[in-house]
Amino acid sequence: MCKESDEHTQSQDSAHAQAAFWLSYARELWGAIRYPEALAAVERALALAPADPAAWYLRGACLCLLARHEEALASFEEALRRDRCYVPAWDGKAWALGVLGHRAEALAAVAEALRLDPDYLPARLRKARLEATAGGETD
């Protein structure tokens, strides 16, 4: 193996370590209800490791809480493009779709989350909320 390849691998390892740091920091900021700062941190993580579905999910969650629902939906869909079985992203997609008034699509997304993990509590709660609001909304 040539030296350049070793340096490239070390550089990739460093980028992944830095991305993990920024994602962890974003989660801490999220927990402290500092959503704009959490969004900035998760975007730094994504710049270093754009294939991480958990980072795309957290970006979407931050955007939802900042009332940027279309952008949030795009982030949840990107997480699913990276991993079709990532349950939190299906629930996040249902969250954004529900807020945007697309109840039937939101129910389909939450149903997929529950198909993948029937015990995923956030999706179970979201499904109950979506079903409880069935009377006054059209899709």
Q: Uncertain runs with pLDDT below 50, 5 residues or more?
A: none
Overall mean pLDDT stands at 91
Radius of gyration from the alpha-carbon trace, in angstroms: 17 Å
Major β-sheet annotation: none
Q: What characteristic shape results from the CA principal axes?
A: globular
Q: What structural category arises from helix and sheet content?
A: mainly alpha
Task: Give a brief rundown of this model.
The chain is mainly α and 139 residues long.
Provide the descriptors you would attach to this structure in a database record:
139 residues, globular, mainly alpha
What does this structure look like?
The protein is mostly helical. 78% of the residues lie in helices and 0% in strands. The chain has seven helices and no strands. It has helices at 3-31, 35-48, 53-65, 69-82, 87-99, 103-116, 121-132. Helix 5 (87-99) packs antiparallel against helix 6. The radius of gyration is 17 Å and the shape is globular. The termini are far apart. The mean pLDDT is 91.
Fold topology:
Elements: H1 3-31, H2 35-48, H3 53-65, H4 69-82, H5 87-99, H6 103-116, H7 121-132
Helix pairs in contact: 1-2, 2-3, 3-4, 3-5, 4-5, 5-6, 5-7, 6-7
